[in-house]
Amino acid sequence: MFTISAFARLTELSPKTLRYYHDRGLLVPAQVAADTGYRTYTLRQVADAVRISVLRRGGMPVSRVREVLDNPDHADALIDEFHEELRRRRKIEDDALTGARRAAFDGEAVTGEIRSMPAQLYAAVTVALPLAGETEPGDDATLRRINEEVDRGADRLRDLLITAGITPTGPWWSNLGVHGDRMAVTVHFPLPNGADPAEVTSLAEDVHHGELPARSEAWVEIPYPESDGDSSVRLALSALVSATDELGADLTALRQTILADATRVEFAVTLETSP
């Protein structure tokens, strides 16, 4: 039998770590003295200590390590599953760093600018997003689903307009809002001057017509993000906030436009409307 100090030296795990593993039920001492609480371990427990150390060094959380130890017949599969999760997580981190370097350090500084824009007629349709609780917020599957639903809404509105002989005058933009009890994305297509509002709203029950007024706006343009969560988007929004600081812009009305060649994206927010 080994005291906790001797076992710590043998396994290169600190007594504090061994106590923690005991408390979590991961490496329970062979004996615990009832009167003193002293822990003692056996030589056979060295193998478990080594397995735990290897898995922990690989980044596996204690709960997953316990699952591996409790299911030796499935240990290989459980380790492979964790390794794949780790690989995906590292790719996301690598992509984020690459995006940050491209956006901020590769000679293309992200800065917000101010411009004046004329009034713009538009046709729009609102796409409701999944309810909270239907999916995990922010996970890859949810983001893909949201993007796919928004793209379908945009494709449908474009087809309705073109079928009616109304040709959009540029790329569509979107903004985030609320629709009933859900968050929603509203897709807008710019229309030619003189477009008939009645004709637009007759295309479908959920299609509406409006005008983005003449305005001054802050805007920023960046390369199209390579993945959801790309840090270049956060850098762009930060630049937009800096450009609108003290100007009273309503950032909840942020507009996003995927430019015609789909290699760049623009973010804009109205500062002041013109009479």
UniProtKB/TrEMBL annotation:
It comes from the Bacteria. Keywords: DNA-binding. This is Zinc-responsive transcriptional regulator. It comes from Actinoalloteichus hoggarensis. The keyword Chaperone does not apply. Coiled coil: none annotated. One of its GO terms (molecular function) is DNA-binding transcription factor activity. The keyword DNA-binding applies. SUPFAM superfamilies: Putative DNA-binding domain.
